[in-house]
Structures are given as C-alpha cells and as structure tokens.
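Reviewers of the previous submission asked for a worked example of the structure-prediction workflow described in the proposal, so we include one complete record here. The input consisted solely of the amino acid sequence. No template or homolog information was supplied to the procedure at any stage.
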Amino acid sequence: VMEAVLSKALSKKIRLDDGRTPEGGSNRSKVFRFKTVSSASGVPETVIVKCVNPSETEPYVPGKPGGPAGQLFDEWASLQLLTEVSGDEPIAPRFYGGDRSEGFILMEDIGQGDSLVQPLLGDNPVAAEEALKMYFAAIGKLHALTIGKEGDYRRIRGNLGPQAHEPS
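From that input alone, the workflow returned the following structure tokens.
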C-alpha cells in the first residue's frame, strides 16, 4: 500500500526496500525510514513513514474522534496544507500521501538536521542568537504562508475523519 501511495504522489512506479529502519517515535506513533528502489529521475533515495502505534486502551479507529486516528489525521492535514502552500521552498517535510485505513503517512526524508536545542544550551552566544533568528524567520514564513488558509486546513482535516473537538 505504501508503494502505491508514493508511486501515485510522484507519478512514477516506485518500490520500497524490505528493510525498514526504525527512526524513533513515541507511545502514539512509530517512524521508519525506507529506501526507494527506482531508476526514475526525481525519486528520493529514502522516505519517512509515520504509522500509528495503537494500544489496547487506545485502538486505531479511523471513524472515531480523537485517539491515535485523530492525532495522525491532524498531522496529515497539517503536512498536506504546508506542502500545498509552500511551493518550491518547503517549510516542512513534503507530504506524499497516506492511507486512512492502514494508519500511516508518507513524507519527505529531510535527514538528521541540527536542533535548536544544542546552540541554545551551548556556550556560544553568537550561535544561539543565529539559531533563534533562523527559528523566528521560519515561524514568520509559516505564518505568512498559512494566513487565511484555515478553511483549507479544515477541509483537508474534515475529509479524513471526525475530530474530538471543533477547532476554535
């Protein structure tokens, strides 16, 4: 199913390798890196797959508000909107697609970038200031790209499934 989602997004036949590399996650999700198998140009070497991590107390039920499904759908809608509005200069990993019934989303692998935490906790005030400037520039760009797009987000999110609460 993942290969079909990615192939559709990139308009190219793509296979994923059998070995998925765990990249982390949490109590609510698991994150994996897959290598792509394709000779076509424009195909990324790797992609990230984020899957729900249901439990006995919180099962994955796509039609039920909240829980693992709601959290996945919130992230899905956010990444899809950011991909749609950011054009050639993405401000988040590019969203390739997902599968509602299987409980996963596919996104661009942006690698292991630097964290804002290291410069802020380090002993170089110039590096800390530069990191904060980059962070606030990214936040400003995020706001500029999404202003007036609340309806688009609500449409995307509403098509995925019910929400536990209506956003204000």
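Strands lie at 15-16, 21-25, 29-37, 46-52, 95-99, 104-108. We consider this example representative of the routine output the project will generate in years two and three.
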